[in-house]
From TrEMBL:
The chain crosses the membrane at residues 12-32, 72-95, 107-131, 143-162, 183-206, 241-262. The keyword ATP-binding does not apply. GO terms for cellular component: plasma membrane. SUPFAM superfamilies: MetI-like (SSF161098). Coiled coil: none annotated. Belongs to the binding-protein-dependent transport system permease family. Residues 72-262 form the ABC transmembrane type-1 domain. The keyword Cell membrane applies. It comes from Melghiribacillus thermohalophilus. Keywords: Cell membrane, Membrane, Transmembrane, Transmembrane helix, Transport. Pfam families: BPD_transp_1. This is Carbohydrate ABC transporter membrane protein 2 (CUT1 family). GO terms for biological process: transmembrane transport. It is a multi-pass membrane protein.
Amino acid sequence: MYRMKKRISTGFVHVLLLSGALLSLFPFYWMFVMATNHNSAINQVPPAFLPGNQTVENFKKVLSNVDFFGSMWNSFVVSTLTTLGVLFLCSLAGFAFAKYKFPGKNILFLFILLTMMVPPQLGLIPQYYIITKLDWLNDLKAVIVPGLIDAFGIFWMRQYISSAIPDELMDAAKIDGCSNFRIYWNIAVPMILPAFSTLAIIKFMYMWNDFLWPLVVLREESVYTIQIAIRSLMDNYVRDYGMILSGTFWATLPLVFIFLFFNKLFIDSLTQGALKS
């Protein structure tokens, strides 16, 4: 009887998880369906629920209206360089906050946490003023450099390093004559790879999907990121939703590949605390 109840409860949990997964995947499937159908099929009642035969035609329309691959490359450069900078700088700062004592440490960390509560829209005007003074308008540096440091990244790394790296290991390294940076590079970095993967996924997705700031500082089509390029597909008087969703679908695929690539480390970082406890 106990085994029967356990099987029923396990089966119910599996059904619940499967239902949640299907509901989560449905918007992506619906976007693919719309990207493969003609605009008339999208507007019909009831709308199409199966993929159509307009995949190539809709994507050709995207290529004829915007520099899709050029914008994808710009987004890839911005997202990759920003992510690498955040991983290095935020892990350094998080390592210092987690394992070293220095004057004003707690107050400084508190100020970093307070910046997370400020809406990013409030910083548009001062950031734009700085970018114009540096003559970085219509340059990818205007998007890359402001994103090289992240308050959440520092907080995440500080919390992870505090529990992942024993103080005794650092003391042993200091006795062996290791410098602070060598302790970070040779001891801390290999032990916090799951935290790196989680922060990399979050930051890459944020920069890839960022729209407002690139829209403000990037005015020329040659430096458009993919989100601005997709937005320009909606400038026509008659909106072709098949074309728009085709561009959106293909622009989303790199995020799927990034998540699948870092999937194992991402799950490890989320479950490590539970396993330790």
